[in-house]
TrEMBL record:
Major localization class: mitochondrion
Gene3D superfamilies: Cytochrome b-c1 complex subunit 7
Xref: Pfam families: UCR_14kD (PF02271)
Keyword Mitochondrion tagged: yes
Protein name: Cytochrome b-c1 complex subunit 7
Coiled-coil stretches: none
Keyword Cytoplasm: no
Assembly with partners or alone: Component of the ubiquinol-cytochrome c oxidoreductase (cytochrome b-c1 complex, complex III, CIII), a multisubunit enzyme composed of 11 subunits. The complex is composed of 3 respiratory subunits cytochrome b, cytochrome c1 and Rieske protein UQCRFS1, 2 core protein subunits UQCRC1/QCR1 and UQCRC2/QCR2, and 6 low-molecular weight protein subunits UQCRH/QCR6, UQCRB/QCR7, UQCRQ/QCR8, UQCR10/QCR9, UQCR11/QCR10 and subunit 9, the cleavage product of Rieske protein UQCRFS1.
Gene Ontology BP annotations: mitochondrial electron transport, ubiquinol to cytochrome c
Source species: Psorophora albipes
Function, in words: Component of the ubiquinol-cytochrome c oxidoreductase, a multisubunit transmembrane complex that is part of the mitochondrial electron transport chain which drives oxidative phosphorylation.
């Protein structure tokens, strides 16, 4: 299966941009999907990622941990921009949730 990650939020607004920059994860070079709480669905979606995306994700998280430990942030030109934040995990997560719901329905009909 081939997925194209959705770029940026669906609605671009000044308030959205403000909230995005206020969150602070972009100062470490992280994407929104890097910060998701790792429940079972997210773990399965991460497992299904192509190796290249997994490697990129691991690099961003490792770099962010290092920056946090040294109490520094990236230079502003390296921050993740609101418009460029890729929701790379979204299609995989939606697929996992659909499968889980289908399995629940299937088991309830037995």
């Amino acid at each position: 299966m081939s997925y194209v990650a959705r770029k940026g939020p669906q609605v671009v607004s000044a308030l959205g941009r403000w909230a995005y920059n206020l969150s602070g994860f972009n100062q470490y070079g992280l994407h929104r999907d890097d910060c998701l709480d790792e429940n079972d669905d997210v773990k399965e979606a991460i497992r299904r990622l192509p190796e290249k995306l997994k490697d990129e994700r691991n690099y961003r998280i490792t770099r962010a941990l290092h920056l946090s430990l040294t109490k520094t942030i990236l230079p502003k030109e390296q921050w993740t921009k609101y418009e460029e934040d890729t929701k790379y995990l979204e299609p995989y997560l939606e697929e996992v949730k659909r499968e889980r719901e289908e399995q629940t329905k299937w088991e309830s009909t037995k």
